[in-house]
Amino acid sequence: MTCIIQWSINGFYRRSIDINRVIYDLNPNIICFQETNFKNSHHPNLKNYTEYIKNRTTANRASGGVATFIKNNIDSKEIIIRTHLQAIVTLVELDKPIHICNIYIPDSSPFTTANIENILDQLSKPYIILGDFNSRNTSWGCNLTDLRGKTIEQIIENDQSLILLNNGDPTRYNSSNGLTLTSSSLAFSME
To answer: Most CB atoms closer than 10 Å: which of 47, 123, 134, 179?
Structure first.
């Protein structure tokens, strides 16, 4: 069984003890962090993992960013996509090749359905899209639905091959920003 962890970490270095504990306890195959807060000169290393990193380049300080760590024994490579959003795509060879898109959209960064659909159009199926969209919707465990949540909901409704994997339980104690979507071909193979 493949273990994938998605974590909006809000500072990789300040959570290093928690990260090591999660790795020890769960031994995940893939870890996708959002809000890594790396400076461009920093490239973190997790023992036994290959890292794929996209830092936020428009800030005056270390903030935002995404990082995907994949166990060294899993064949993987970065797939370059065209987007202004903080997103990174990796192709991993599990039972079959799967694209994993790790995305972070800060509250201060507006996005449209076209921005997300642009990313979807660049992914081959099967794929998993996960991350922190800073969107709230009762469909994925929030106590309210905001405009950003409605945008994501519209994307799911427009693309019949897109499946929401969140089960309605909150993804965080104080908020529900984490979101995981997949192509239907992968969702049905997971049953």
So the answer is: 179
